[in-house]
Amino acid sequence: MIETNFWLSFLFRFHLAVTARRSSSSPLKIPSKNSIQKIQMGTNQNSVLRGCSSNSRGALVVLEGLDRCGKTTQSSRLVQYLEGLGFSAELWRFPDRTTSVGQMISSYLSNKSQLDDRTIHLLFSANRWEKRSLMESKLKSGTTLIVDRYSYSGVAFSAAKGLDIEWCKAPEVGLLASDSVLYLDISPENAAERGGYGRERYEQLEFQRKVYQYYQVLHDSSWKIIDACQTMEDIEKQLQEIVLGCVKRCHNGEPLSELWLS
């Protein structure tokens, strides 16, 4: 509980600082209900880490999409594929439910506890921040990380609850940026027909429709969109081709960057 309180306090102060900085330079643009402004979130919007060398490194590959779109299965297969080619690779998932913060999130997602929308958003952010240092170390050591959900999910899901997108992005500023975002595209209706749907808090059709809408707002030309209604084998083949190219670029020295720093 002490560690959890530390992270909430840290993120609250961090969020206030970022919000104040942005407010002093330009007013926030709040999307209306009928016209949601497209917000660029791709890697081309990220700032290169200061002092980061151009040495060979692992790639940070993120899989995104609605619940039951197939991310978990494809993430595991990607790791196996890369390891089979001789690359060092690991599978990561957010939220990481093994940490103290992650355990609170897990309790919330399984409907065993209730938390304010802003509180749970900050906990999700804290869960990513507590792994940031290890993530950077792994990447610089040459290990490619295949990540099942990342900051983009955090923003899409919280915005779907009615929170402002800029507010949602603020505590994510400075996390490591993905080298590739792979979005498994499936309609909320098709996802709802898949096995196990409805076990967790967010697996409700109407809510997933809102999440889907915000994913459309968030993605830009840097994202790779894959039809998640194809056969598992066809999806796997497409992902392998994209990821292998990304891994090669990073091994050739493409620098790390951070999320949403202007």
UniProtKB/TrEMBL annotation:
Coiled coil: none
Keywords: ATP-binding, Kinase, Nucleotide biosynthesis, Nucleotide-binding, Signal, Transferase
CDD domains linked to this entry: TMPK
One GO BP: dUDP biosynthetic process
SUPFAM superfamilies in alphabetical order: P-loop containing nucleoside triphosphate hydrolases
InterPro entries: P-loop_NTPase, Thymidylate_kin-like_dom, Thymidylate_kin_CS, Thymidylate_kinase
Biological or metabolic pathway of the protein: Pyrimidine metabolism; dTTP biosynthesis
EC number assigned by the record: 2.7.4.9
Gene Ontology CC: cytosol; mitochondrion; nucleus
GO MF, any single term: dTMP kinase activity
Family: Belongs to the thymidylate kinase family.
PANTHER family, sorted: THYMIDYLATE KINASE (PTHR10344)
Name of the protein in question: Thymidylate kinase
Domain named Thymidylate kinase-like: residues: 63-238
Signal peptide region: 1-25
Enzyme class: transferase
